[in-house]
Amino acid sequence: MTTSDQILLSVTMLRPEEKLLLGALRDEGLRARPLLMEDLAEIVAGHCGPPALALIRNLSHREAVSVSRRLEHAGVSTLNRAAAIETCNDKGLQALLFAQHGIAHPITHHAFSVDQVRRTVADLGMPAVVKPASGSWGRGVSKMTNTDCVEAWVAGRESTDVTGKQFPVVVQEYIDKPGHDLRIVVVGRTPVVAIKRESDDWRTNTHLGATVQRVELTAEMEKLCGQVVDALGVGFYGVDLVEDRSTGELLVLEVNANPEFARSSALHGVNVAGHLAAYVAETLAASAV
To answer: Which helix (H) or strand (E) holds 148?
Structure first.
């Protein structure tokens, strides 16, 4: 069977998001099927024609980069691109990219040892935030409010990472936000929905219990998302913005290249899967002209 007119949905498992995407792609008249890791060998070996496009939705950051790189080297277009996925999977790389492109972002430094963490937190001033370079759902993110917090973090790190293989980490200025952050879902170049994630916890993440409410997209949100797309390239992103309570300024906190949307879509009513499927259909139609 030829795959030249197919859309492949690269997955680790079919979550609600991927089931919605498969349905939306088929509603656009596109032939779409899941692509598991073991299916990849046939594609990259050239045993069948290349698909029209591969959507990368693998759960593992490392797996997503590996799949997209191999598909790209085999001549398959991917969404998102491997370079964008790799950057979005590393908060340190994002910080460097944002600085290079003049995108408003909290002050962020790399630290390659526990001593550098100590020095960098002291230089930034407390509170400060220490984050693993790669991670999601708020895991491993620590707020340093005093030297006891820093030393507790160091003790934990030294007991679980004796050889220092989990460095670098990022040390970031703490932004005093008004109890919420913003997630903007971007399809192609277009922000399609903005949601406010509100929590009593300083980490406003839905996996940690934050509530979700749709808000209107503003010119400032659209400007920041446009800058992100200019830097990363067109794609499917969850752009996280945070407001500095003291200045009112919006900053780009980070960008997710594999945003979840099923639960929030059920609440805010925007058909994110439909927007992405329509974008794919329009892109393929334009490339065929």
So the answer is: helix 147-160
